């Protein structure tokens, strides 16, 4: 008997056109599909909205056998499977919500060779009987969606993903594909190692999102009311457009949503404090209603596919550049112009570090997360093109300036603050890391009230009298964003301390140039 001819790229294109109505593959999709069609393992790093799912769906339809898809969220699975079924693709999912009868039907269908795609959760795969049943079937491929969940360096670590490496031994010869939108070099290595994708080709698509216009605005320290007012202003200026406002806490989320509603916006609050049904209802409203603005915590995220989101505003910044890119990446998925606006302030980085510190995790993991938070703040308070910074961080060395972000449009004036930085670091050190920001600045200016001789005797007393107070604030804040100074909470009376010792030494020795923006864009006072 003749074996059926192996599927070709022409078949793949025909399927893309027939089932999805897309004229051709875009970006690196074609390369990824070609690898799997040839039966080889592949790891695909494609940006959000880059069309990761068809990369495995099409080969699963074309290759003989069942395509197994491991996906981290039931909501994600449900969406994908429902969409596939509507398009006439034989797909099913097995999760805790599927009845016994439906399960039997799915297995019958699979046995009869009538099923192209089966979605399962990593927990589901941990059950031996499921593996046994899969062993009886020919598999076309194994796809691991959102593969960064395997890495504790990533921001969505799922311990269950750790066990997926054994699929390599359980199903030898079945091509495996790992897909993710976020992976810096370290996470990428981790994915390859954990999932035993040693020989896999790693395909990394460009992370450019030319239709996104990005900007960042400095918050006034401690003024929540002003930040809220600024968010309302921003949303009001975009009335009628659909958007997402990310908040760092559930309280903040409820508060901002209410304020937006009071201002006449169709705002919907969304966070993990609501039960699943309520969240689903709210998500449906967001998808269905015109000009809806989702005010959410990070509980709102993975798998949200609304094409015409015109803006993403961070009322509070995320935890890393990966999270930043993924979250602002939810805007403009239709390719039309969209905006990403991030509000950030010194209290945000202090809060982020405090929260990390209180988390139960290994010290080395914590250290990486702290570094990631700092890199994000350095970008936000920095003076280089925002997409260029992020894409270089993702390993795209050749990324050019975007030309449309706030930095490209209006390059900020910088001044060389290396000497002031040395003075500020020395002052913090001499003062014994026992004082807050205002007091440190007063010391630099020589303005401390009721000053004692021990202080005037310090070599740092009044060494900054030649510089304006607001400049000192900008310098000290910037040193915090760069991690050279840290704010220790000290029960609500934060103390300024020295940051990473090696980095601080670099500044003292003049090896590290500190550039500070003369006038960072700031949240404006409410009118
Ligand atoms: P991701 O999972 O990478 O975020 P999806 O797989 O959800 O992205 O795809 C995002 C959108 O892009 C979907 O609406 C999808 O139909 C569309 N899409 C995928 N591939 C193509 C293509 N080759 N041409 C045009 N649109 C595409
Ligand atoms: Zn730019």
UniProtKB/TrEMBL annotation:
Name the Enzyme Commission number(s) assigned to this protein.
5.6.2.4
- Taxonomy, superkingdom: Bacteria
A GO molecular function assigned to this protein is:
hydrolase activity
Q: What residues does the Helicase ATP-binding domain cover?
A: 33-201
Reaction(s) this enzyme catalyzes, per UniProt: Couples ATP hydrolysis with the unwinding of duplex DNA by translocating in the 3'-5' direction
The residues covered by the Rhodanese domain are: 244-285
Report the residue ranges that make up the Helicase C-terminal domain in this protein.
Answer: 226-376
> What cofactor is this protein dependent on?
Mg(2+); Zn(2+)
BP terms from Gene Ontology: DNA recombination; DNA repair; DNA replication; SOS response
Q: Which family does it belong to?
A: Belongs to the helicase family. RecQ subfamily.
Q: What is this protein called?
A: DNA helicase RecQ
Q: What is the lineage of its organism?
A: Bacteria, Pseudomonadati, Pseudomonadota, Alphaproteobacteria, Caulobacterales
């Amino acid at each position: 008997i003749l074996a059926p001819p192996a599927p070709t790229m022409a078949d793949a294109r025909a399927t893309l056109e027939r089932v999805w109505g897309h004229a051709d593959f875009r970006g690196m999709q074609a390369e990824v599909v070609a690898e799997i069609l040839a039966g080889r393992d592949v790891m695909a790093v494609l940006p959000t909205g880059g069309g990761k799912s068809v990369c495995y769906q099409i080969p699963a339809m074309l290759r003989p056998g069942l395509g197994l898809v491991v996906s981290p969220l039931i909501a994600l699975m449900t969406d994908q499977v429902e969409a596939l079924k509507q398009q006439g693709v034989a797909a099913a999912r097995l999760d805790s919500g599927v009845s016994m009868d439906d399960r039997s039907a799915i297995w019958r269908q699979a046995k009869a060779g009538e099923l192209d795609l089966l979605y399962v959760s990593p927990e589901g795969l941990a059950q031996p009987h499921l593996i046994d049943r899969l062993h009886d079937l020919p598999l076309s491929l194994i796809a691991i969606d959102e593969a960064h969940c395997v890495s504790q360096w990533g921001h969505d670590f799922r311990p269950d993903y750790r066990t997926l490496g054994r699929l390599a031994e359980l199903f030898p010869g079945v091509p495996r594909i790992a897909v993710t939108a976020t992976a810096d070099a370290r996470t990428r290595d981790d994915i390859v190692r954990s999932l035993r994708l040693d020989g896999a080709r790693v395909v990394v698509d460009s992370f450019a999102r030319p239709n996104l216009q990005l900007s960042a605005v400095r918050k006034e320290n401690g003024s929540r009311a002003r930040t809220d007012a600024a968010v309302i202003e921003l949303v009001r200026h975009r009335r009628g457009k659909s958007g997402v406002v990310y908040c760092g806490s559930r309280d903040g989320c409820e508060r901002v949503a209410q304020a937006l509603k009071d201002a006449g916006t169709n705002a919907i609050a969304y966070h993990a404090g609501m039960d699943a049904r309520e969240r689903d209802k709210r998500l449906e409203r967001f998808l269905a209603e015109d000009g809806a603005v989702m005010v959410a915590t990070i509980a709102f995220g993975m798998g949200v596919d609304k094409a015409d989101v015109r803006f993403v505003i961070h009322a509070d910044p995320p935890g890393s550049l990966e999270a930043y890119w993924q979250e602002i990446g939810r805007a403009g998925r239709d390719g039309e112009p969209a905006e990403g606006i991030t509000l950030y302030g010194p209290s945000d980085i202090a809060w982020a570090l405090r929260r990390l510190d209180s988390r139960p995790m290994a010290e080395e993991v914590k250290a990486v997360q702290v570094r990631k938070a700092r890199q994000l703040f350095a970008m936000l308070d920095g003076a280089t093109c925002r997409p260029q910074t992020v894409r270089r961080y993702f390993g795209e060395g050749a990324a050019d300036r975007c030309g449309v972000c706030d930095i490209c449009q209006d390059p900020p004036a910088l001044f060389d603050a290396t000497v002031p930085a040395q003075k500020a670091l020395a002052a913090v050190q001499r003062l014994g890391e026992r004082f807050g920001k205002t007091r440190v600045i007063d010391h630099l200016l020589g303005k401390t009230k009721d000053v004692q001789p021990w202080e005037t005797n310090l070599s740092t007393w009044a060494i900054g009298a030649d510089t304006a107070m607001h400049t000192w604030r900008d310098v000290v804040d910037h040193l915090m964003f760069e991690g050279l100074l840290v704010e220790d909470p000290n029960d609500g009376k934060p103390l300024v301390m020295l940051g990473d010792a090696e980095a601080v030494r670099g500044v003292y020795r003049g090896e590290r140039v500190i550039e500070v923006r003369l006038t960072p864009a700031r949240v404006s006072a409410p009118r």
